[in-house]
Specification:
The chain has 188 residues and is an alpha/beta fold. It has 8 helices and 7 strands. The chain is 35% helix and 26% strand.
């Protein structure tokens, strides 16, 4: 399978661990999903896309990961996504433009609630015609306006922005990291 450079770079940035609970926004044909699921042991990936064709392609490409329970592929717009609160360690997207072409407040509210306290959102782009000087300031402002903390620009083989979900009442102490025995499936 040919893996685009932007996907390889994005996965090096996101760096999912074996027990991470991850959301991929705009999974397309499932190339990144395959690479992430290869790293997971007790973790889980929820891959979403608005396109039914993309969802079917991602599920077909990753049938063994779906069968093993490491992957769920779901057709959903991000602002319609339903997952348990604080159930994700990381969320990411690659070349998804909604975060800078319009007001993403509804989507960022969903993500802030879904990420555990200190969970990380990565909004990443491969190098291309859209320059980071045009995109990243808009995304930084949107993340900060919508309650994300520790917002910073990422540069490398691509560019993007990362932000953390703020601490909630339980803070980062005493079980902020969720194990698979506490969560069950993300869609449950």
């Amino acid at each position: 399978m040919k893996v685009p450079d932007r996907v390889r770079w994005a996965l090096s940035v996101v760096d999912p661990g074996p027990a991470d609970r991850v959301l991929e926004i705009g999974c397309g044909p499932g190339v990144a999903a395959a690479l992430i699921c290869d790293r997971l042991e007790t973790g889980h990936l929820l891959a979403i896309d608005r396109s039914p064709v993309a969802v079917q392609r991602a599920a077909d490409r990753n049938a063994s990961h779906v069968d093993a329970g490491r992957l769920e592929v779901r057709q959903s717009a991000l602002d319609d996504l339903e997952v348990p609160a604080a159930s994700l360690d990381k969320a990411f997207c690659v070349n998804v433009n909604l975060f800078w072409v319009r007001d993403p407040s509804a989507e960022l509210t969903v993500l802030r609630k879904a990420l555990r306290p200190g969970g990380i959102l990565y909004i990443l782009y491969g190098d291309g015609p859209t320059g980071d000087d045009r995109v990243t300031p808009v995304i930084v402002e949107a993340l900060e306006r919508n309650g994300f903390v520790g917002v910073e620009v990422i540069e490398g083989a691509g560019f993007g922005v990362r932000g953390e979900s703020p601490d909630r009442a339980q803070g980062r102490q005493g079980g902020a990291r969720h194990g698979s025995d506490q969560l069950g499936e993300l869609g449950s």
